[in-house]
Every structure is written in C-alpha cells, then in structure tokens.
Amino acid sequence: MTDSQATPLLSLRNVSIALPKGADRALAVEDVSYDVFRGEILCVVGESGSGKSMAANAVMGLLPKGVYTSGGEAIFDGQDLLQLSEKQHRTLRGLRIGMIFQEPMTALNPLMRVGAQIAEVFEAHGQFNGRERQQKALALLTEVGIPDPDKAIRAYPFQLSGGQRQRVMIAMALALEPELLIADEPTTALDVTTQAQILELIRDLQQRRGMAVMFITHDFGVVAEIANRVCVMRYGQIVELGEAEAVLKHPSHDYTRALIEAIPSDVIPEARGAETDTPLLEVVGLNKVFRSKGGLFKPAREVHALQDVSFSLVKGETIGIVGESGSGKSTLGRCVVRLERPDSGTLSLSGTDFMHLQGEALRRERHRVQMIFQDPYASLNPRHRVGYAIAQGPIANGTSKGQAMAKAKELLALVGLDGTDDRYPHEFSGGQRQRIGIARALAMQPELIVADEAVSALDVSIQAQILELLEELKQKLSLSLLFITHDLRVAAQICDHIVVMQHGRIVEQGPAREVFLAPREAYTRELLDAIPGREHELADA
Amino acid sequence: MLYVRLITMRLLKAVVVLFMIIIFNFVLIQLAPGDPAAILAGEAGATDEEFLRQLRERFGLDQPLYVQLWRYVSGVAMLDFGFSYRQQMPVLDLILARLPATLLLTGTAFVLSLFLGIVAGSLAAARVKKPSGSIIMALALLFYATPLFWVALMSVVLFSVYLDLLPAYGMYTVGAGHTGLALVLDVGKHLILPATTLALFFMAIYTRMTRASMLDASQQDFVKTARAKGLKNSVIQRRHILRNALLPIITLAGLQAGQMVGGAILTETVFAWPGIGRLMFEALQQRDYNLLLGIFFFSAALVILFNIITDLVYGLADPRIKEGS
Amino acid sequence: MSFFARFAQNRGALIGLIILLTIIAMAILAPLLFPESPWRMVQRPFLPPMEVDGFPLGTDTMGRNVAAGLMHGAWVSLLIGLVSTTVALAIGVPLGAIAGYYGGLIDDALMRFTEFFQTIPNFALAIVLVAIMQPSITSIVLAIAIVSWPPVARLVRAEFLSLRNREYVEAARLVGQSNTTIILRQILPNTLSPIIVLASLMVATAILLESALSFLGLGDPNVMSWGYMIGAARTVIRQAWWLSFFPGVAILLTVLALNLVGEGLDDALNPKLARERS
C-alpha cells in the first residue's frame, strides 16, 4: 500500500522527550524513530502513560510546560521541526500540519461563533479577505458533513453536539489543506455510532486529499478500522512497528499480542444458562422523568430518562444494559440501587417492593443491592484507609468494628490485594482501586450487584484483569450482576442476557448470543456495526 | 428571550431585597435595647419630648407590632424616610442632595480600578514566573492589605501637606465660584485623591482575580486549538484567553460593588467629600439613627444597581445567555 | 513531602509567619513591657518619635505613649480577628453544609438568605449594627461575624455540592450510612483545606474591618485599638503624621502577614488534593 522507497513526509529520528523532575520517569519518549508517508494513515497505539501523543505534540511545537525534547530530530520537508523557533513553528501549524484533539466539548472557544473560529485559520496565515473566509468556512462545513451548514456557521459551540463539534475541529484542521493531519484520540470521547461516522469521515478525507494522517489511539479496534501501518508504544518506547494487517494478525511482540487479546474480541458470546428460575430482580413499566427547574440561565426542561422499562433478572445471572450516552442506562442502574427514585412502575427484589422504601426503612434494606462505580479515582474517600472503607458498611449495619475489619482483610485477599488494609487510596493504581470497590460491595453480602461502567475508565489490559476477577467471583459466590456498559465488546464477554437501550426505552432484549448473532432491531444492528474493528475480527474468526 | 427574562428576574429580585432591607431595619430598631423612639431620635433627640411623640405616632409605637411594621414599610415604600432632627431636614432630601457626589466618586473609582486591575492582571499573567509579574503581584498584595482610610490619610500628608499638589478636602474650591469647564476641572482635581485611594484596594482585587482567571483560561483545551491553528501569541492572549477570563471578573466586579460603597464611607470621611458616606459619618457622630438607617437603605439600593449593571454586561458577554433558547 | 516542608517552600509564607509570630509576641508582652494602661497620660502631648527615652514612637494628642498603645492594640486586633472569624465559621459552615448536602428547597431558601446578606454593603451593615447595639467588643465581634459568614456558607455549599455526588459518598449511602455520618465523616473532612485557607484570609479582613470601625469612632471605648489611634489623630494629621503612621503600618503588616500565611497554606494544602485526583 505504501511505497517504502519514497521519501517520508515526516521522519522522526531517535527522538527523546524529557519529563519535568519528579515525574514517574525521566523520559516520556525514549529514542523513538518512525516515518509518516504521504497518503497513509499511521496509527500510534498505546495505553495511558505510553507517551504515544508526546512525539506528535513535539512535532506541533505544543509540548506541555516543563516537557522538552532532549534529543533526536523530526525532519519535515527537509527541516528539523525540533530546532524551529516558536515563530517558524507557527507558520507551519494550521498551514502544513493540522491537528485535532480528544475533547470536542472543550476544544472550541465557547464565546466565538463557529464560522469565526474557522476563519481564524485563514487569518493566522494571512489568506483571503473577510468575505472569502466566511465562504471558505461554509464550504468546509459542508465538506465535513455538518447538517445545515448555513446555520452551523453562525452557531456557538454550545449549540452543537459532540460529534458536530468534532466535525468543526476537522474542518478547521483541514482548512488550509495541510499535508499532515495529526489526530490525537479524536473519537475517544464519542459514542460508538458517532465514532464510526467520524472515523469514516477522516478516512474519506484522507483518501480524497491524499494527505498523511498520524492517528493516535489506545484502541486496537480503531487501528483495525483505519490504519495502514501501526506503531505500538509502551513506557515511551516503540514495541512494534509495521503494516497494520501484519501486526494485527501476527503480532511479533508479547505486549502487542497481549493488547490485542485483551480486547474482548470474540464478539459472539457463548450460550450460558441461568442457575435457577426464581426472579431476583423484577422491573415492570419503570418510568423516570428529570425536571430541571427553569433557572435564570435555562428554561424548564423535562427529560424522559426511563420510559416503560421492564425486564427481570434471575438469581446467578448477569444482565448487560447496553446503550450510548443519554440512553438512560445509568439512570436505570441508579434506580435499581435506589440512588434515584423511579416515578412509577414496579421495582421488586426477591418479592419485596424496593421502590417505595424511604428513609430509615430504605437505609436498613440498602445492603441487599450494592454498586461498583465507574471512576476508580472518585469512588474511594481519599481520607480513609481502604480497610476501613470496606468495613464502614458492615459497621453502619451493626457489625462490631473488630469483626468488620477482619472481614475487610479477607475480602482484600479475595480480590488479590492481600495485606493492604492500612493503606490510603492514593497508594493504589486505578485497577487496584477498582478491586477495592468490588471488595466494598461484597462486604455487604448483597443479593445483587450493579456495575456501572465499572471497567470503562481502565486501560484494556487492566480491563481484562478486572473482567476476569468478576467472572471468577461470579463462579465462586454465585453473584447476580447488572452490568451497565457502553462497550458491546465488554458486554459480549461477561453477560448472559443483553438489554439494549436508546432514548430511555428498551429497544431489544434477549439472550446475549441471540442479540449479537441475530439482532432483531435496526438500532441494535447499527450499534454492532459501529464496533471498531468488528469486520476485521469476524474475518479472522 | 432568555436575556429579557434574566433582566426581569433581576429587577424582581431587587425589589424583594429592598423590601427585606426595610424589614431588617425595622427588626434592628425593635431588637435594640431601650425605647425604639429614643433610639430613632438618637442621643440628641432623647430629651425632646415633642420629637419623641412625633416618632411614636409615625411608627405607631403604642400599636401592635404588625401595625408598626405596616406603617414602617408603607412609609418607606412611599419614600418617606422620616425627619432628621439634628439636621432639621427630611432624610430623603438630605440623601438625595448627597447622592450625586457619591455616584461620581464610586463610579470613577469603579471604572478606574476595573480597567487598571484588568490591565495589571493580564500583564502579570503573561509574565508569570518572571520578575515583572512577581512585582505586580507583590504590589497588588500590598494594596490589598493596606487599610483604605490609612492610605487616604497618608496621601493627604504626602500630596497636600508636603508636596502641595492636590487639594485634600471637599469637592470644589469653596468661594472660587467656578462655572463651566473651570468647575469641571476644579472638581476633577478634588476627585483625584479620593478616587485613587478608593480604587487602589479594588484594583488589587481585580489584578489578582484577572491573573488567576487568565492562568485558568490558558489551561483550557481551546487555547491549544488556537495554537494549533498557528495564531500569534498576542492574538491568543487577547481573543481567546482574556475574553474567557473576563466572565468571572464581571461577576466578581458586581459582588465587589457593595464593598466599594462601604469603602466610600471611609474615603469620604477622610477627604470631606460631600457624599452619603460623609453623611453617614455625620449621622454616626450625632447618633442620628433615623438618618443612618435611611442611608443604609440607599447604599444597599446603590449596590443592587451596580449588580444589575454587571448582570446586563455579563449577559451581553456570554452567548450562552444571550442566545440560549 | 510533609505539610510544613511544602509550606516552607513558599518564601512569602515564611516571612508572613515570622511577622505574625512577632505581632503575637507583641500582644503577649504588652502587659509586661507596658504594665500601665495605654490610656494614661505620661508625657507632654505631641512628642515626636525618638526624642525622649522610653517613648520611641512619641506621644499622642493627650500625651499618651504611642508605643504602649501599639502593643496593647495588637492584642485587641488579633482577638477580634480570631473570635469573629470563629463565629462566622460557626454560622457559615453548618448553613453551607446543609444547603449543599440536601439541595432542593432547603438549598434555595438558605441561599436566598445568604445572597441577601451578600447584597447588603458589608461595611455599612457593620456600622449600623455596632451603632445600634452600642460599641463594645461583643457588638463589634458580632457585627463582623454577621457580615463575613456568607462567603463561608457559599464555599462550603459549593464543596458539598461537588462532593455529595462523588462516588465514594454514594457508596457510603448505599451501605446504609446515615446522613449525619456522611456529612461529618465522608464530606466535611474533604472540605477542610479550603475552609482553613479562607479562614486565615477572613481573620485579615476582620482586622481591617475592626480598624475601620474604630477609626469611625465605633470601637470599644475601654480598649486601645490601632483603628482608634488613627481616627483620634486624623484631625491633627498636619501637625503629627506619626500618630497615624505607626498604627497604620501595624495593621498593614498584620493583614499582609495573614494573607501570606493564607497563600502558603493554600499551596501546602492543595497540591495534595491535586495529586490524589490525578
């Protein structure tokens, strides 16, 4: 596909980038060399902390304060980008190298109209007059497929959706037809279906304009979708570099293999049977409306977070609630644990009405349903030792302190953190904290555990370990699990039953294998098709 | 639309707050130890039986409490703030005569401090970790920690007594009979010291706030986007960072308006500036509580006015309010 | 790094701490060095500084020792600053905590109440309160506390609002901890550092307020204070500038020191939280 004999557009040679003193390592990037050719998409892949986006920032001259290149060169069109003055660098940025970022919600200036922000690119490089800039901006917005570009050009960022904002960012980056586009995790913050659209747009534009794209991502699924070549990074060093096909099919390095395997790749789940038929959780016709009061800054609004939601969960079963943001899946989870109170419907747990409990009565019954939270950094009180954090629940429910602490130690051992009960949360990594969160939920000996995006904030390799732990605990303790996730690959791995949600309603539900193999609803198919790398893996299977 | 709605809400709120202040005044008179009539009359009027009788009648002090409250509230609502025994004039007339001087002083100081504070704060933010930036911040801290009335006194010593450059007292030269432009210049000359000393403290606040707000804004993602476009640093500072940093400063400026009216009491006292602050000092010395409460009400009204103005400006500056649906 | 090591990294904060300790020493030593009442007339009036031994800062309009007044005044300023801040915290922290934790109508009502107090011009309110209650240490402390609690309530409410939906707080709710336990054990300890920083700045503001009240003649007539000394010398500023100068410098240094210490506390307390989140 690429002509390796041709001169590369960008060539990194032995680049090293130093971190400020006191960081966890001296070099963010160590002795890294790779080329980017015209007309290709190079994916730089790595987990958090791998230094994957540092080299790109150095190429743009946008390294964070305190971080600097300590060696090597980056040759772009005959000149070393690392030696350029800020002024020289500025004339390249936007003109010959464009860049898009991860967070479309915050990457645009909230106080400027979209059109003005695109026109700024021309202004920065002294091209065209005011009228022409607006016309160009309009043409660009049309090209990136924004609905109603005439209106969008006069809109402020807050009036656009996340996907639309990312399209605006792309329009801006491509305004002056740069030869190189750097895309730093541009789809990570988006829903799967939006992600699929943006990936298609980038690939489309790249082919039409024949430009080079350096695409930074943590997701091998995305790599499978768009990459020509792949550069896998770990701890600031290149682990593996080669043609995408070859790396994905025959990874030569153990780390790459582990990463690819860590992606829950067998999108077709096995058939599993539930242990019993007695329903543990019964949800019938559940409704929940959020009313935001008409404040000074916004008019009153009603959001139907849940509409007529019904499903039931059998003891020992794992049900996956799947949907994109705004589908109501998290509200459903919060209603089940009663952090929210449903407006109407039935919510019962082993026959007891769990919906109308209130005050002291609710507090006494709470131990029956526990939750594992999403953010491992926010789910533990920074001021409490983890042993105490786990013991708090039993203590609040009348267990003696000594007994509760002893039990906490046992549970920590169970989740693989033996002898750590007197440490504080900041001494643990994200994955370890998630294990502590699981131990805390188990301490209450709940009948049901709700896991709300419990692995979404973790790197894939850690994700796999946590999923493994949950699987193991399920077998050992015959847990019943309500597993809420936006990631169908994860759901496929752990769930017996799948409930697909959209706009507060259940679209489809059924045994996991059926939903994945023979989806009945169009939306489910759309979701499945949007999984990055799916075609590739199916071809493999 | 949202903006109109915002203004309407603010005006409604202003009415409610003013009403609450009237009630607050009433409660204050009731809670104070001793005969409310004697308190209202103050030390001076305490011996005058006729005046006390008038006060009792006006407030219905022999009536049940709710009748008293009603009389008091309806009186103030009709802009009847009573009579100042010591000055032998209606309280309202006294205040209205002094209001323009205070508006001139606080208005000048407000604009001056906001402008200089934003300029100094932006400079300090652009020169963070450089000596010039540190010097600006050290000066701001110094002004912030200096008692206003003391700066006022020391500036009198320095500029009027020793250097003899500027007048130390009053609003214009008494007996000079200036008119037209000469009067404007004369008042301007008298305004320099009071306005500057009043502005210093607030300038310090705005400087610190602007710097913090700019540093905050420069961490935002959209600044990186702007740099990726190849924009010049000066354009990024002005168009992207400063514009976003100004929003919290506008809010703060509104909140500080109340402090400024309080500061005017001290400045006017030192410089014998004939505004309501000086009037308050006089009322205090003469224990003229009726006048004191009247001024208190008006100073609160002034603060609300400043607040409404800053809200209007904020609404214009933030498209999320201006164009929000 | 230990708390003090981080604090000591900020040179301004160290200087502030030294000034503050000096002023505290002044307050403690005042009765030993100048056992006589600072109100006693001991020399001829208007004695300039450094002219007569034992009167390094001269005498005032009534022949009272300015140095003695300055040292006794330190005690009054610090006392009023500390006590009024404590009272303001006692009002603001519970109000803010309740409003932020429970939200809804309780929050609305409490915040309207707080906003009302924030709208009223602080200083004018303090004047009216002290004037009507009659000047005394108690009325001054109360007045200062009444005008300075709203920022505390707002800060604590904002912290509670952002922490009450933190996952560890929700987890505490799910395991059945009571509201009181959650407020006191889960949330409040995590709001302490900003409260401590604010409190140190409030002491400074309280000292400024007290001096301004005394300057206007609303000080406790039984105690010598810096503001009173400046106010009493105001009319003779042309003849005797030093009578206003030295007490002013004392106020300036105290307020400056407290601000520096506050900034140092902020630096020392906050990176820890930042690191825990990162």
TrEMBL record, chain A:
- State the name under which the record lists this protein: ABC-type dipeptide transporter
UniProt-listed Enzyme Commission number(s): 7.4.2.9
A GO CC term attached to the entry: plasma membrane
Pfam families with a match to the protein in the record = ABC_tran (PF00005), oligo_HPY (PF08352)
Q: What is its main location?
A: membrane
Entry-linked CDD domains: ABC_NikE_OppD_transporters
Q: Describe the location of the ABC transporter domain by residue ranges.
A: 10-260, 284-528
Could you mention a single GO BP entry for this protein? transmembrane transport
Report the InterPro entries cross-referenced here: AAA+_ATPase, ABC_Ni/Peptide_Import, ABC_transporter-like_ATP-bd, ABC_transporter-like_CS, Oligopep_ABC_C, P-loop_NTPase
Which cell locations does it reside in? Cell inner membrane
UniProtKB/TrEMBL annotation, chain B:
Q: Any idea where the ABC transmembrane type-1 domain is?
A: 99-314
Cited Pfam families: BPD_transp_1 (PF00528), BPD_transp_1_N (PF19300)
Q: InterPro entries, from UniProt?
A: BPD_transp_1_N, MetI-like, MetI-like_sf
Q: Per its UniProt entry, which superkingdom is the organism in?
A: Bacteria
Q: Does the keyword Protease apply?
A: no
SUPFAM superfamilies in the record: MetI-like (SSF161098)
Taking the first listed entry, what is the main subcellular location of this protein, grouped into a coarse class? membrane
Report how it sits in the membrane.
Multi-pass membrane protein
Q: Which UniProt keywords apply?
A: Cell membrane, Membrane, Transmembrane, Transmembrane helix, Transport
- Please verify whether the record's keywords include Transmembrane: yes
Which subcellular locations apply to this protein? Cell membrane
This protein's GO cellular component annotations are:
plasma membrane
Mark the transmembrane ranges: 12-32, 103-126, 138-163, 191-209, 246-271, 291-317
Q: Name one GO biological process term.
A: transmembrane transport
Q: Which family does it belong to?
A: Belongs to the binding-protein-dependent transport system permease family.
The protein's name is ABC transporter permease
* Organism the protein comes from: Halomonas salipaludis
TrEMBL record, chain C:
**Pfam families (alphabetical):** BPD_transp_1, OppC_N
Q: What is its main location?
A: membrane
Biological process terms in GO annotation:
transmembrane transport
Presence of keyword Oxidoreductase: no
Q: Which domain of life is it from?
A: Bacteria
Q: Where in the cell is it found?
A: Cell membrane
The Gene Ontology CC terms held by the record are: plasma membrane
Identify the keywords attached in UniProt to this record, alphabetized.
Cell membrane, Membrane, Transmembrane, Transmembrane helix, Transport
Q: Which residues form a coiled coil?
A: none
- Signal sequence interval, chain numbering: none
Topology within the bilayer? Multi-pass membrane protein
Residues covered by the ABC transmembrane type-1 domain: 74-262
Kindly list the residue ranges recorded as spanning the membrane: 12-34, 74-102, 123-147, 195-219, 240-261
The record's annotation in InterPro entries points to: BP-dependent_transpt_permease (IPR050366), MetI-like (IPR000515), MetI-like_sf (IPR035906), OppC_N (IPR025966)
For this chain, the family text in UniProt reads: Belongs to the binding-protein-dependent transport system permease family.
Q: Which PANTHER family match?
A: D,D-DIPEPTIDE TRANSPORT SYSTEM PERMEASE PROTEIN DDPC-RELATED (PTHR43386:SF1), OLIGOPEPTIDE TRANSPORT SYSTEM PERMEASE PROTEIN APPC (PTHR43386)
UniProt protein name: ABC transporter permease
The taxonomic lineage of its organism, from the top, reads: Bacteria, Pseudomonadati, Pseudomonadota, Gammaproteobacteria, Oceanospirillales
